[in-house]
Amino acid sequence: METENKRAAGGRIAILASALMWGLAGICVKEIDGWPTTSIVAVRSAISLIMLIAAKLVSDRTLRIKLSWRNIAGGAAAAATGMLYVQSIKMTTAGTAIVLQYIAPILVFLFAVIFRHKKVRLAEALITLCVFGGIILSFADSLDPSRITGNVLGLLSGFTFAAQIIILNDDGSEPIDSMIISCAAALVMSLPFAFSVDPGAVNTHNLVWLAVLGVFQYGAGNLLFALGIKKTDGIEASLLLTLEPIFNPIPVALFYGERMGTLALIGSAVVIVFVTLYGLLPVIRKKMQKA
Length: 291
Fold this sequence. Notes:
The protein is mainly α. It has one domain. Helices cover 76% and strands 0% of the residues. The protein is built from 14 helices and no strands. It has helices at residues 2-22, 25-31, 37-60, 69-91, 94-101, 104-114, 122-138, 148-168, 175-190, 204-228, 234-240, 243-247, 249-256, 262-290. Helix 3 packs antiparallel against helix 9, helix 4 (69-91) runs antiparallel to helix 8 (148-168) and helix 4 crosses helix 9.
């Protein structure tokens, strides 16, 4: 039991860390000026691919990738999520893009209840809804209904992100293999269209931010997600990952001086409180049973 608890705790820490890394997307994409989406996706996918292959060699001492349907489907979902999200940021506000993507916890929750017949307690259902409400509240001022195409892409990324969590949380999946497949697929799909960068945009500033995007936001984020996703419950992982949109505006505030409004602060507090409460539910139940 103690070993299992330590494993679960390690999984939660990895998922939380991946959320923080992924939360750098907004500031990185915003700082990279003059680069088309395909070029950004190609560079960050290449860097992440190298990091994941290195991790695979260290952990398994082999580069043999298991091409099961789960791994391929999980990789396809992850690749689609990344590409849809980056394109969505380019076509709508970062706040709108991330809010629409984080319909994922609701979809993961519904999948578990409907298809896996998971017995969900009322407290878990209410916490999931409160977290989703907190995210919407956090970005209520930035939701822009006028940017239809970007909004649709953001919503689609929510569905593919939910699929990514569900598939890679399955016992039969190999998350690192899936993430390698994901990065390789994203690289192959974006590479033919990646060489339309204006020479003037290939400067030190953009290259530094591309490195941050590839190494930390995507490479480290994907690796931490792969390490943590099978050690946590799917619903719990999806809720922990909601810290990504809460963290997302912090680097922007630090670099650009953009202050979070009252609704954003309230929404962020709601998410943090209820995600923490979800993590404490087992402890609370044990104490109630002993009382």
